[in-house]
Amino acid sequence: MCTSIVEIVGVKGAGKSVEGWIGLTHAVVSYDHPHHAMAEEAVAIDFVNSARGPGARVAVELTLEAAKQLSEALARTIAAAEIEERARSQKRSSPVRSATQDGV
Description:
four-stranded antiparallel β-sheet
């Protein structure tokens, strides 16, 4: 059964395809019959560079359970990265006081 579940999102990054490393322009996430995964249905993620044609892609097919675990891992990593980025931003925006400013 075709599910017609498809999401497309723009992305900035890089992926390694058969052509080597390529810049990525978008990702297509779907839930449908897999081409290679041994499952009835799978979450497929195609990372694509639309300017370079159909060969410029990196594809994965995951079971629903594996996709859930990946989603949770991504959420944890993103949350930790946002904390790290906020700390870096605060360090950059904090004025550095010199000894002469402190009256020393």
